[in-house]
Amino acid sequence: MNFATYIPSEALQPFVKSYTFIESEQTVTNRILPTTSFALAFRLRGQISYIHNSHTSLLPRTTFTGLKKSARLINYEANSAAIIVLFKETGVAAFFPTPPQLLFEQSVPLANFFPIAEISLLEQHLAETKNTAETIALIEAFLLSKISYSKTDPLITEAIANIHAVNGNLKIKGLANSLYISQDAFEKRFRKLTGATPKQFAHIVKLNALIRQNPSDTSFMDIVHENGYYDQPHFNKDFKVFTGQTPKEFFKSGKFW
């Protein structure tokens, strides 16, 4: 499986984190962990499916995915390819009319938001591109045509930075107090931009930070305690919901991104 990551144009950098081109010559199933970014996936060729409870569902040619609390299994058939637009954590609200918080745990066709004829034409043009540069240019032209506002929210941007700085290990009430805003008002503004509550967002950050440390058997519980867990059953439950596997199964398999 081949991956290549590209940086967006300057006009889209306030909203888009990256484009990732994925190409698979063989049939591969990937475990996709929850992240704090919305994603827009364009299936360029071949068959790409979502596997849930042993049931396989073919993904649409364009799929928009909100924040998730659990991992997903994505199957790439041989000779398939896709490009993923990964939005910045406060960037997606600039493009889509639907409030981001309504898309938590959702994956829906792009045509749910824009005219079917427009999306069908975009998909047709993408199928005719000759290289990745042409593909990205088409996607960027589409995204630029959909920007409805360009304002940022410095308070929410600061809150996100604070959450990442402590790997999600903080109290939301304390975070709101540090930003001189009531917790209710803070949570509404946060959900409006990120698509998740501050608590949900911090939980995703925390579990990803722990996984990145790739703990050995000897350091595992130390790292678990450092990340705010004081009993193993509680951690094991959260970890399995997040990854779909026990810690032992997950770190042994190594097939995730």
UniProtKB/TrEMBL annotation:
| Presence of keyword ATP-binding | no
Q: Name one GO molecular function term.
A: DNA-binding transcription factor activity
Q: Which residues form the HTH araC/xylS-type domain?
A: 150-253
Instruction: Show which residues constitute the signal peptide.
Output: none
Pfam families on file: DUF6597, HTH_18
- Which spans of this chain does the record mark as coiled coil? none
Q: Which SUPFAM superfamilies match?
A: Homeodomain-like
Q: Does the keyword Protein biosynthesis apply?
A: no
What keywords would UniProt list here?
DNA-binding, Transcription, Transcription regulation
* InterPro entries, per database record: AraC_XylS_family_regulators (IPR050204), DUF6597 (IPR046532), Homeodomain-like_sf (IPR009057), HTH_AraC (IPR018060)
* Protein name in UniProt: Helix-turn-helix transcriptional regulator
Q: To which species is this protein native?
A: Arachidicoccus ginsenosidivorans
